[in-house]
Each structure stands twice: as structure tokens, then as C-alpha cells.
């Protein structure tokens, strides 16, 4: 298997609070990595460092062999100009807890926005692709609806279609079901399950242990800005070596 995402030594502090203490992770193409851990352990910050929404204080993230945010000039690493960084970021699909749809645009307009504005695709091309994606997430019937007219689960399925419309190299999910009413969680997880089985490379921060057990190839448990456990879902979730990981996971039993 080839490496899709690699982070080496990612560190991030806010003031004196060291939130990430050197994070090394690897994700192979087509692999699903679930990141678990208590609130405040640095999971969101790690995703934001991978796509350079936050600039790490140290360390680097590679996606398909490209260092995010930097380019080698000779043997010196230089920060990328903003337009090139935006181009790189557009290759990383991000799905947030709170959907972040454009509220004044319809479902269809939300999904074609990136391809038309960033990728300069024709509207017709973008619309054809958007409709296929909306079909995939079960939202075809609502393409003319506005986000306010949708349930949370529907909004999140549109947000997933919107991220996929950019044909990302990897999908990053930050607690995509945490803001949903319990009865709406399943429909979003079902879409994610389908994506995973179609070979999409995914990093998923979640508290859905059942999803992790069933879908993740590997699981990382972060505590206090460190990776405390990393391995196949089955062994990490059933038999963690680290006592703090044991204590964390026991809450879900
Ligand atoms: P998680 O996603 O695991 O809950 P976060 O990455 O959101 O954790 O946050 C890790 C820690 O970093 C928390 O203590 C949080 O308060 C702090 N933090 C996150 N973002 C900022 C910020 N922009 N400024 C200051 N502190 C932050
Ligand atoms: Mg978070």
C-alpha cells in the first residue's frame, strides 16, 4: 500500500499550552483512520494542522508526497504563496461538526460552488457531477432546498457531497455526527460507510466507537496532544495497552 497522508512531528502550542506534542501518523491510500480521544486532546487541531488551516509550530504533513504549505526551492523549504496553498487545501475535503454550508445558496449551488469558482469548471459539468454526488448521498430530491429547510443529517450529507465535488485526495471528518440528534446519526454514518467501501482515503475524528470498530482499518487514540495508541481497530479497541486509553475507552462500554 502507498502512503496517502503522513505527518511527522507535528507540534502546536497556544500560548504556553502545548496542544500537539509531536504527532506522527500514516494513512495509506484507500485506508480509513479513525482518531478517538477525550475532548481537548488536540484532535481538531491535528486535522487543522494537516490542511494548514493552522500552521504547525513544528513538523510537516504530506499528502500524496506533497508537503502541505511548503515547497522545496533547491534544498530550502519555503512557505507556499497563498494561492498555491489554497490549491493544495482544495485537494483535502473537510467535513465539520457544524456543516458550514452557505445558507443563502441552494443545495445544488453549495455543491457546485467549489468546482466552478476554484476549479473553473463549466456550470454544466459541475451540475452533472453534483447531481451524481447528491444521488450518492440520497439528497437528489432536495437539490433546490436551502440549508435552513433541511435536517442536520441532510445538511451533513450535503456537506459530504460538497467536499467530494472537489475530488479530494483525502477526506477529513471532524466529529461529523456530534451535532446531530441521535436518530439522524445513522444516515450520515451510512454515507461514510459507503465512501469507505468505495476506497476513499479517510481520516475520521469521531466518538462513534461502533463505526470505528466496523469501518476503520486503523485507530489512533490521542490523549493530551500525544498518540497513545495506534493500530488495527480490533486490537486498539478491544485490548489497549495504555492504561489511560483503557480508561478512556471504558466510558463507551
Ligand atoms: P479536541 O478536538 O480533541 O477536542 P482541540 O484540538 O479542539 O481538541 O483543542 C485542544 C486544546 O487546544 C484545547 O484545550 C483547546 O482549548 C485548545 N485550543 C484549540 N484551538 C485553540 C485556539 N485557537 N486558541 C487557543 N486554544 C485553542
Ligand atoms: Mg474537536
TrEMBL record:
Annotated InterPro entries: AAA+_ATPase, ABC_ATPase_HisP-typ, ABC_transporter-like_ATP-bd, ABC_transporter-like_CS, MetN_ABC_transporter-like, P-loop_NTPase
Membrane-topology descriptor: Peripheral membrane protein
Key words, A-Z: ATP-binding, Cell membrane, Membrane, Nucleotide-binding, Transport
UniProt GO cellular component terms: plasma membrane
Entry-linked PROSITE patterns: ABC_TRANSPORTER_1, ABC_TRANSPORTER_2
Transmembrane segments: none
SUPFAM superfamilies xrefs: P-loop containing nucleoside triphosphate hydrolases
ABC transporter domain sequence ranges: 5-249
Subcellular location as annotated: Cell membrane
Lineage, broadest ranks: Bacteria, Pseudomonadati, Pseudomonadota, Alphaproteobacteria, Rhodobacterales
Family membership: Belongs to the ABC transporter superfamily.
The organism of origin for this protein: Paracoccus litorisediminis
Domain of life: Bacteria
Protein name: ATP-binding cassette domain-containing protein
GO molecular function, one term: ABC-type amino acid transporter activity
Amino acid at each position: 500500500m502507498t502512503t496517502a497522508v503522513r505527518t511527522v512531528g507535528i507540534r502546536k502550542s497556544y500560548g504556553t499550552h502545548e496542544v500537539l506534542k509531536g504527532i506522527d501518523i500514516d494513512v495509506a491510500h484507500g485506508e480509513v483512520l479513525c482518531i478517538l480521544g477525550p475532548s481537548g486532546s488536540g484532535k481538531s487541531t491535528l486535522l487543522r494542522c494537516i490542511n494548514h488551516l493552522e500552521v504547525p509550530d513544528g513538523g510537516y504533513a504530506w499528502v500524496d508526497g506533497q508537503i502541505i504549505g511548503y515547497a522545496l526551492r533547491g534544498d530550502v523549504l519555503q512557505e507556499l504563496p497563498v494561492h498555491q496553498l489554497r490549491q493544495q487545501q482544495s485537494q483535502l475535503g473537510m467535513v465539520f461538526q457544524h456543516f458550514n454550508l452557505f445558507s443563502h445558496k441552494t443545495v445544488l449551488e453549495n455543491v457546485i460552488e467549489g468546482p466552478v469558482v476554484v476549479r473553473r469548471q463549466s456550470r454544466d459539468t459541475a451540475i452533472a457531477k453534483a447531481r451524481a454526488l447528491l444521488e450518492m448521498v440520497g439528497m437528489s430530491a432536495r437539490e433546490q432546498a436551502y440549508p435552513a429547510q433541511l435536517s442536520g443529517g441532510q445538511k451533513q450529507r450535503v456537506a459530504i457531497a460538497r467536499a467530494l465535488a472537489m475530488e479530494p485526495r483525502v477526506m477529513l471528518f471532524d466529529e461529523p455526527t456530534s451535532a446531530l440528534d441521535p436518530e439522524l446519526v445513522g444516515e450520515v454514518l451510512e454515507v461514510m460507510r459507503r465512501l469507505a467501501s468505495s476506497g476513499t482515503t479517510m481520516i475520521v475524528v469521531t466518538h462513534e466507537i461502533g463505526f470505528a470498530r466496523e469501518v476503520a482499518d486503523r485507530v489512533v487514540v490521542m490523549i493530551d496532544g500525544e498518540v497513545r495508541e495506534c493500530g488495527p481497530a480490533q486490537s486498539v479497541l478491544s485490548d489497549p495497552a495504555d492504561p489511560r486509553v483503557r480508561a478512556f475507552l471504558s466510558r463507551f462500554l
